[in-house]
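Q: I have 283 residues here and want to know how they pack in 3D. Can you give me a structure?
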Amino acid sequence: MFVQAILEQLNSDLARLQQKRAIFEQAGDVPHAESLRQRETELARHIVNIRAEQVAARFRPEEVAAASAIEPGPARFEEVVGTARQIAVQLGLCQVRWTTPAGALAAIEPRPDEVVRYAGVLAAAYNDPRNAPLLGHTDDVDEDDVAAHYADVAQGGGHNFLVFVDGALAADADLRKVGGGAAEFAFMVASPAAQGRGLGTRVATMIHAFGFRRLGLERIYASIIPGNAASRRVFEKLGYQVDASPAARAYADEPGDVTMGIDRAAFERSHAQAMAEIEISVR
């Protein structure tokens, strides 16, 4: 309980630093903003280290090594600690909250039981004939397919989100292929009736705030089916630009997809007010 209280305080301190930095950035005060960014990085590293110690206390080194495909026995201490930190980050499921004129938005990293609870609703949304072509689905998916997809993203080091508006499930999103300071973003607004009203843009803004602030990503990419004009408009509103570089094409889900990207500095400049309003914490 004592360690958890410390983590909660540190996370609160981190949120306040992020809000202050967003204000300085909005005012164009680059030196102060950069100073706060460095303090954020140090604090975030301290939080991860505490979580890693919690994991290390819970598992023997050979168990951590086995869980990460590191050969037990001869595994180096640094490898085990690094893996413990990765596991610790996964254990620290987060939530992203944003109160807007359109309602109170909450994006949560779901536990497995929560994925199962909403799998039926998500499967129905994925299969909706107005959604399926935009997602690239040719066959219907069922609840098991949804659960498997969420598991694949998580096991690959990604972050899944269920998004609620005023307590009702409205969308889902994820950051996948996370690594090297970059990731791919994907999302779906469940109800076609709710599409085209700004919800997708708000959901995307929240998850990008998480990616850039919480994960420390430097660039996020999107892979868009050429006919999905609605999604492309969302990304353009966020500030994305078409990117056909080899780095971007590595995130293409299909050879014919359009790849776009945005870096952290561009996003934070364009969305400083939202960044100041969005709250990120451990669940």
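Q: Anything worth noting?
A: The first helix runs from residue 2 to 26. The longest strand covers residues 168-179.
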